[in-house]
TrEMBL record:
Keyword entries, A-Z: Membrane, Transmembrane, Transmembrane helix
Protein name per the record: Transporter
Source organism (scientific name): Paenibacillus rhizosphaerae
Residue spans crossing the bilayer: 6-24, 31-60, 66-84, 104-121, 127-143, 150-168, 188-208, 251-272, 278-297, 309-333, 353-378, 390-409, 421-442, 454-471
Amino acid sequence: MVIHLTALHYVYLAFIVFIMALLIKRRDTTMICVAGIFVLGWLATETLSGSVSGIFNSFIYATKELMGTIMIISIIVAMSRVLIRTGINETMVAPLTRFIRTPAVAFWGIGLIMLVTSLFFWPSPAVALIGAVLLPVAARVGLPALGAAIAMNLFGHGIALSGDYIIQGAPKLTADAAGLHVSQVMEASVPLVIVMGLVTTVTAYWMMRRDMKNGTWRDGLVTGSGGAGTLTGEGGGAEESAAPLTARVRVWLAVIIPVLFLIDVAAMFVLKLQGGDATALVGGTAVLILNAVTLLSHRNQGLEKVTSYLIDGFTFGFKVFGPVIPIAAFFYLGDAAFTDLFGKVLPESSNGIVNDLGAALAHVVPLNGAVGAVTLTITGAITGLDGSGFSGISLAGSIAQLFAAATHADAATLTALGQVAAIWVGGGTLIPWALIPAAAICGVSPFELARRNLKPVLIGLAVTTAVAIFLV
């Protein structure tokens, strides 16, 4: 099938290059994204009113898409603040301090716990489950909040999500598109996921330790407090100290609260809840815990304090997401959002601007195994730029099938490579709004987290592609 690229495709690509260049230079990209939305709207509607309205409508679209994440982060932060003020969090994490005694143990420990949890329940609910508990421990032993965010992000949204061996959402999509059985893609992805994971996490850890030693480390905190500053609620609407709880009550609550989340974990497994449903279960449980602990600690003022804690949480959530929404609005235009906002102005055969660009790339390169591997990596990375990681992996499967048929290369390995590249880029390690859960829980800038991840992920993709060339 011939891919017809229009001016919309080229303008979108030009803005992507500009935005990525600004991110690398650590400059803000909000104004450029707004300009990109305006220009695309102008080309699509050919009217000033349509392009101007498109800016606002794209913000609304992005907010709707991100609202679930905004809500869970806000609620978890609200709950965590009352737990910290009452001393329950201190009691809860005390046993872990016996095992996590150095920054290195904290980094790798948080990462491995995140990996295991994410394999069963996907990364966003996993971040909510473990972030608030482990972050204070990590901060206490000297691991920066940004370091904890890197660990949770790379192990969860990177390694666990790119393999997706338990839930199998990603390999199912790519396998279907490539005409393969899902087990073939999963088996082929194992060495690629291992190589990508090892190279990326080791590189990220080495760079973190090097920069901390040289004094060039940037914490990237959203607030000026320490590692767990975003969860302490300093200066928030619920400033008054909670009534002291007895040691016995604190211990009981420190046991009951993790048990409630473990019940959530069991329920996710038994009821096969994943994605938004799993996040909703964690969020609902957090709201109930917030209400119960606030009533116990504030007694007669409990009814009012519940609202104060929620206001604190939502204030933090929208403060973090404020700069992300304009950028997400631009990149969502690369997928279905464009047609939703500006109508059917793309060619009839179009599968969205981003997917069209990826397919066009596959049609202009020479066909052989090595070029096929490189092309699948680049195609996967490009389709991941919309921030979902999943929207373009079917395209990766289709292109892998094309290269395998033409060159007799291993279709399963090429398919797995495209899947790994798409999810590492778009699933939550490079695109700022996709890695919001880990950044928000740790109280760091998602843009700084994306910058810290950039070199390790690019190095990992290069090494993984080289390994795949020998496997195809």
